[in-house]
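User: Could you go from structure to sequence for me? I need the amino acid at each position, not a summary. Structure tokens:
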């Protein structure tokens, strides 16, 4: 008759469903934020490094000319420009590293690392800085194998030794030792500098805290030790500090021990594609695919300073692919941002053709974020080098690729960070 006789209702508690949906939404928002931040940093890295490549590159060329002409006054001015550019590049690298560490985007590859060998390879990079400050570099015991990321552990060592040099006194010393005991391997850096009080030690790893030394003209960003601790933590280790004002400071990095040396010393060579064998002394040909005329000019001048190498260049990806097929170069350097299509498409097209599929291709890019390097190597590039170009490292890499090339012009900055060009 249209009248309800009874009602039946069912209730569900949807709190958990709502909470789960909220968590998923928050995770999606966080993921989008991380991706946006990563893209922003990658873009900023590229935009900052591209002009720095010209500033530092042509400064080094002018330094060579001034040194050869005996123009000491001009050389001193150029060294100021180069030092300022290096400082800006260091700040960019530190900020990017710190951001990547905080977001969890910087991945570490742990493997056995012989600490004595690491010290032996790293300290020569710091001899120039030590001589500049009148500080002696010394080594003690060199034993032990740690489970660590070799590149990042070298970064830790270089940062600690650099600080020990800069904050030392004229005539002071820095001692580096390594040791192993049971399940732990240790890396120690001891200096005879100004030392730290207990309050300074408590805030030592705070970013941008330099305890007022920026007023003394000592170069630095105030981020280095923050990155050091984050890297050591990421390698499942710890860092200890002991110091006494006026007497010096000792940093000790303790890491899990590895019982046998692994591929740390040969990992890079083993991971590279086989290099086409060339008779010693054979003239090598390089093709550089790059749309930035300033970068082309810089690399051309740099390669021309090397006996036994010639270089050709193309401004677009399509022209570069076509030139590679006719030229058959011994090495192809590829910028990743080209006007028609990117460097990854250049690589894909070269690998798709029988005439060019075996050509070794190296990415040479201002995109220097960790994900950029991983993506480039995963795509099939033989190696990934970053801008700004450091002449010493660039020429050393060419020498490795072409053992028969002639002598190069004398360079000012042959000692540099090992991760500035990878």
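Assistant: Here is the amino acid at each position, in order:
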């Amino acid at each position: 008759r249209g009248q309800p006789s009874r009602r039946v209702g069912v209730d569900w508690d949807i709190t958990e469903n709502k909470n789960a949906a909220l968590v998923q939404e928050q995770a999606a928002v966080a993921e989008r934020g991380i991706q946006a931040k990563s893209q922003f940093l990658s873009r900023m890295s590229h935009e900052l490094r591209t002009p720095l490549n010209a500033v530092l590159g042509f400064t080094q060329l002018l330094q060579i000319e001034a040194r050869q002409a005996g123009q000491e006054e001009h050389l001193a001015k150029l060294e100021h420009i180069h030092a300022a550019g290096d400082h800006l590049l260091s700040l960019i690298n530190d900020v990017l590293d710190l951001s990547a560490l905080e977001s969890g985007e910087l991945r570490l590859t742990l493997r056995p690392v012989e600490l004595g060998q690491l010290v032996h390879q790293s300290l020569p990079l710091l001899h120039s800085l030590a001589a500049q400050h009148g500080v002696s570099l010394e080594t003690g015991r060199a034993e032990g194998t740690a489970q660590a990321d070799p590149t990042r552990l070298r970064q830790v060592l270089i940062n600690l030794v650099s600080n020990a040099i800069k904050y030392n006194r004229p005539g002071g010393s820095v001692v580096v030792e390594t040791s192993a005991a049971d399940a732990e391997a240790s890396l120690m850096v001891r200096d005879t500098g100004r030392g730290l009080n207990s309050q300074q030690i408590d805030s030592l790893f705070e970013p941008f805290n330099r305890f007022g030394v920026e007023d003394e003209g000592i170069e630095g960003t105030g981020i280095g030790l923050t990155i050091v601790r984050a890297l050591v933590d990421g390698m499942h280790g710890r860092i200890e500090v002991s110091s006494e004002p006026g007497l010096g400071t000792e940093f000790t990095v303790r890491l899990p021990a590895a019982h046998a040396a692994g591929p740390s010393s040969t990992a890079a060579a083993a991971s590279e594609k086989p290099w086409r064998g060339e008779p010693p002394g054979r003239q090598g040909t390089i093709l550089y695919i790059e749309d930035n005329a300033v970068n082309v000019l810089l690399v051309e001048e740099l390669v021309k300073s090397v006996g036994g190498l010639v270089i050709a260049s193309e401004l677009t990806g399509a022209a570069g692919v076509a030139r590679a097929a006719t030229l058959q170069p011994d090495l192809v350097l590829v910028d990743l941002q080209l006007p028609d299509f990117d460097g990854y498409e250049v690589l894909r097209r070269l690998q798709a053709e029988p005439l060019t599929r075996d050509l070794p291709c190296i990415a040479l890019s201002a995109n220097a974020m960790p994900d950029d390097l991983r993506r480039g190597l995963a795509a099939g590039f033989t190696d990934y080098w970053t801008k700004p170009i450091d002449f010493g490292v660039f020429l050393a890499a060419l020498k490795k690729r072409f053992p028969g090339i002639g002598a190069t012009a004398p360079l000012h900055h042959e000692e540099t960070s090992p991760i500035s060009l990878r």
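One structural detail worth keeping in mind: The mean pLDDT is 80.
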